[in-house]
Amino acid sequence: MGPGFDIFGMALEHPKDTVTIIPTSYKDVEIQVSGLAASGIPTDPERNTAGVVARKILENFSLETGLVIKLEKGILHSVGLGSSAASAAAVAFGLNHLFNLQLNSTQLIRLAAKGEVASAGVEHADNVSAAILGDFIIIKSYNPLEALRLEPPRNLSVCIAIPRVPVPCKKTKVARSILPKTVPMEKLVHNVGHAAALAASLAIGDVDLIGKSMSDVVVEPARAFLITGYEKVRERALEAGACGVAISGAGPAMMAIVNSNKTRASQVAEAMKEGFESVGVSASAFCTKPGKGVSLLEVKR
């Protein structure tokens, strides 16, 4: 969300994944993938975030069992919506319940973040924290790991536009590799100020200020060239009434924050879609709200 690279994350009400975990007698982890967003997701446990987390937990807690993990994917992967984090978080959460491991949220986040190495190359905790805790999260510290949760205001809506473009293999890792290695002081000051304002505006429930604080002069400019139509989508969204616009995660999806007391989110979503189409890029768009994160749907013994 703008200036909060690896620090800010927000769970979404939609889209969703459903994950089913079945213990087996054979000592291995099997990944099965289905759903509308299943295409291209690896089933090799070493290359799938759910598989990495599952094997890590089995090893750490000396659990003498195998697992079949069924991922019904509703979240498109490699577009910047945290698909890999959703799988990792769900498995950590599910195994904690299944085997009564009594892990707290920080321990779950730390384990789920290990799965992100499979997609991003690093254990970043922003996405998995949002998936586990829900609402809006701030990673205060990585060592020791500390995540804070804030409840977004009710009149905050989120619009997502996803261009239909090819993305590179290990897209998140590629998007991280192009980031600047050093940051000028004036850019550091800008991002710290805007990140602080964004967190404060969430705490006081000011959606307009949230949008105005979504200005990043470090990471987003380095990635914007990867997204054909970036400027047009941003321009159209703001003209339609969005409070703020940013690349969603590592992209290529873009997100806009909308004050639903003032503007219809659907008109912003349509404007973003038209922004991509104006430069010859087919796209889809939808509206959603902040979500409550992972939840237990059913337990069968």
Distance between the termini: 41 Å
* Low-pLDDT stretches: none
CATH class category label of the largest domain: Alpha Beta
Helix/strand structural class: alpha+beta
Number of helices: 11
Number of strands: 10
Rg from alpha-carbon coordinates:
19 Å
The figure for the number of domains is 2
For the record, the CATH architecture of the largest domain stands as 2-Layer Sandwich
- Main β-sheet, spatial strand arrangement: 8-9-7-10
Strand content: 15-25%
Helix and strand element order: EEEHEHHHHEEEHHHHHEEHE
What general form does the structure show? Answer: globular
Share of residues in helices: 25-40%
In short:
By secondary structure, the chain is an alpha+beta fold.
Chain-wise SSE layout:
Layout: E1 8-10, E2 18-24, E3 29-34, H1 49-60, E4 66-72, H2 83-98, H3 105-115, H4 117-120, H5 126-133, E5 136-142, E6 145-150, E7 156-163, H6 171-177, H7 185-204, H8 207-212, H9 219-223, H10 230-239, E8 244-247, E9 254-259, H11 265-277, E10 283-288
Parallel strand pairs: 3-4
Antiparallel strand pairs: 1-5, 2-4, 5-6, 7-9, 7-10, 8-9
